[in-house]
Amino acid sequence: MRWAIVIFNSMRTVLTLIAFSFSLLALQAQSLKDLFLKMPQEVCPVLSEYNRLEIVDNQKNDKTMQTRNLFRTFSEMKELTDDYAHLVISKNSEKEMKLLTKNDGTRIIMVISTIFCDDTPDSSVAFYSTDWKPLRTLDYYTLPPIDNFRRVTVDKATSQLTVTTTNAPFLISTDGSDKPKEPYTATNTFRWSTEENRFILND
Asked: What angle do CA 69, 73, 123 make, to 5 degrees?
């Protein structure tokens, strides 16, 4: 009888570990489509849960991935795959999302938010866990030390970031003349390093 109890408890432990492993695999297997549907509204306040459902449903039915957002204007998902999304929220704002894999196999979500001021883009980068808990940005990425407007884009295939900065919107005449200072533009590229779990500047 004692051996039967031991065997039963051992089997229960094994089954619990198997169930836990499958739950971890299911969590890791979530696609960006799944995560987009679960995205908290504060990440993109103008899109309700219904809006996100409509976008994904339109994709399933081979329709334009468009929805009327909470501002009563249209937002459109330009591309939505298992690990990449490009969402045009309005004519002045958009978001790119990319699933990244760390060296221990866990995945994180990178969200690039861009607004346009007189056609000049200003981008910010944020990172989240797959349950949409904010992560400390500086643990994964450090922007160049230039306090100007930035445009940050991600290569959906390689995960490489390209950061373009420009001071053009701020150029004014400082000596009373009508001639502005020369515009300054810089471009930096970063690659995702699984060894360091962060983006590092290309050599």
From this structure: 80
